[in-house]
Design brief:
It contains 5 helices and no strands. By secondary structure, it is mainly α. It has one domain (2-82). Helix 2 (30-45) packs antiparallel against helix 3. It is globular.
């Protein structure tokens, strides 16, 4: 389990980098916040509690800016971060 969590955190860090590179084109940090939240979950499972908390604080700050008044009403769970990701269906 620990090895899986460590490898998952490495993959999530790469995904965050890709999300950050796309922020200017996309116009927001929704994807980055969502991936930082998931990275916090993976780090917590790997026992890296301090680093997990730091990632979650960053994600929450972005979510608060993004969701405005909804921030207080939505719990700090994956679904709240999923709402910040736009998927264009045609």
């Amino acid at each position: 389990m620990l090895t899986f969590a460590c490898s998952r955190s490495k993959i999530l860090r790469k995904i965050i980098l890709i999300c950050q590179l796309n922020e200017q084109t996309k116009g927001d940090q929704g994807d980055s916040a969502r991936m930082r939240w998931w990275l916090g979950e993976a780090l917590a499972q790997a026992g890296k509690v301090d680093e997990a908390a730091a990632q979650k604080v960053i994600a929450q700050g972005i979510r608060k800016d993004f969701q405005g008044s909804l921030f207080e009403r939505l719990p700090d769970v994956a679904r709240s971060y999923d709402l910040m990701v736009f998927v264009d269906f045609w």
